[in-house]
Amino acid sequence: MTYCVAMRLDTGLLFASDSRTNAGVDHIATFRKMHVFEQPGKRLIVLLSAGNLATTQSVVSLLRQRLDDDAVNLYNVATLYDAAALVGNTVKEVVARYASEGTLGQGVDFGANFIVGGQIRGETTRLFQVYPQGNFIETCEDTPYFQIGESKYGKPIIDRVVRSDTSLPEAAKCTLISFDSTIRSNLSVGLPIDMLLYGADTFAPAAPHRIDGDDPYFNKLRRGWGEGLRRVFAKLPDADWFE
Amino acid sequence: MTYCVAMRLDTGLLFASDSRTNAGVDHIATFRKMHVFEQPGKRLIVLLSAGNLATTQSVVSLLRQRLDDDAVNLYNVATLYDAAALVGNTVKEVVARYASEGTLGQGVDFGANFIVGGQIRGETTRLFQVYPQGNFIETCEDTPYFQIGESKYGKPIIDRVVRSDTSLPEAAKCTLISFDSTIRSNLSVGLPIDMLLYGADTFAPAAPHRIDGDDPYFNKLRRGWGEGLRRVFAKLPDADWFE
Questions:
Q1: Does A237 contact B at CB distance below 8 Å?
Q2: Which domains, ranges and CATH numbers included, belong to chain B?
Q3: Omega of the bond prior to B192 within 30 degrees of 0, cis?
């Protein structure tokens, strides 16, 4: 499985992805699920992927090898909306190819989910979630984040903390706690985590940060969060209706 | 959907269930998912149910109307193991009846999950999870709890807090926090919560406690937990690798 989160905040965008893939429990590997398309000063488009690895890799490879084409590609689409549509169409193209080759069925789910976000000069930052069917939705002020993959374990802390006006460093902190909860409860999500923070309107070179098991900040956070939770828990009263 | 939790601790058993059922989002109702079979002084058997409501209700009705039969029933099985097997066989019986009547298929999942726990005089407390196929597993010291239904949102807090030697009141506190996280993030789980705490070897009459939206303890807990989390979160440092 996979766990990816992206947030569109007033001051910028956050992207985070784990890097564990598995085909069954005995075939586990590490693959990057964050894919950056950037032209510093002009545009940044970040893709996060979940689902069938052959499908997501095909989609990203096709998107990348077409960057020099004259046809529509991620470096010449006019808006992030068009970028999301292009990703959706490429997902459909790959799955249609499987269908025509007789690859579909066989009890395998060939579907893929993507999060597509970034900023193209002339637009504000935007963030989309692309479904396996190729259609997509965009964040709004009430719901400024998307998750794909194993989203449930880490959702409560995001629901409690993140609003549109949350700062990027706070959002990063919340996201790492969300990953910690997920990794503790689900074997199919694993380190390292890739995290990219983008300040709105900066068009600066995007530098994903890789967080591994020996990352001092992540370890301080996990320890502090775990101890803090237990402290809060211990201070809360027991029910008076029991004995 | 549904959310049920049960724990087998050194000092006793905990059972908790929400009470929301839905067939689509526009047909929501409240049904008790905790079913108590007891002979004070002799035996206590508690069932928690998740899945297709017609199936779970049929299973519980059949188990109850057979209590006076001479055949095997929940009041005459010799062990909790036999009780779990009886529940599993009754699930299979109901689903087999659907199959013979041509009810199966039609895009509906007729499956049901049960948690079966309690104590029969002569045995220690025991706790089982029964799958839709009728087979079942029992807790052990390393994994003293089972969840059925929407289990993921509320799993991290249980994984952090509950061990076999956790006290019943602490386990109750943790379980209610787990329900709070689930209810906040998932519409298909809702109040009231039924909770039953049983002290090992007491064979006392079982008194489920019903927790509704105006329960003072539950509200104090949700408020204290939410505020405590935000306090711990605010005190944790921001990443030094961001600006």
A1: yes
A2: 3-235 (3.60.20.10)
A3: yes
